[in-house]
């Protein structure tokens, strides 16, 4: 592979990374805003997840393969989870159920 192809590949990869970062801005902002509006829910979810993992005696790095998953594809998983949660939050907010 020539040097010019390698440089072109690096430019393309940088552009893709910048686009991926840009795609995450809106869902992340929505998730953070929801966390500020409902702080007890956010703390409750984190506490519940910690309690369940503690009861199952599952330290994240003790689960086979999870260490590699956390180091290798954690950003992709966080991105997908952020999108899903933000979409769910926006759909829930759009329902407009005022009680």
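-> sequence recovered:
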């Amino acid at each position: 592979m020539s040097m010019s192809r390698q440089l072109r590949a690096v430019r393309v990869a940088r552009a893709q990374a910048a686009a991926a970062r840009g795609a995450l801005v809106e869902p992340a902002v929505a998730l953070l805003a929801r966390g500020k509006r409902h702080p007890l829910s956010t703390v409750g979810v984190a506490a519940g997840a910690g309690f369940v993992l503690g009861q199952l005696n599952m330290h994240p790095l003790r689960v086979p393969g999870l260490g590699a998953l956390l180091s290798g594809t954690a950003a992709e998983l966080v991105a997908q989870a952020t999108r899903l949660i933000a979409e769910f939050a926006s759909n829930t907010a759009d329902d407009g159920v005022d009680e």
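The CA atoms of residues 24 and 80 lie 9 Å apart.
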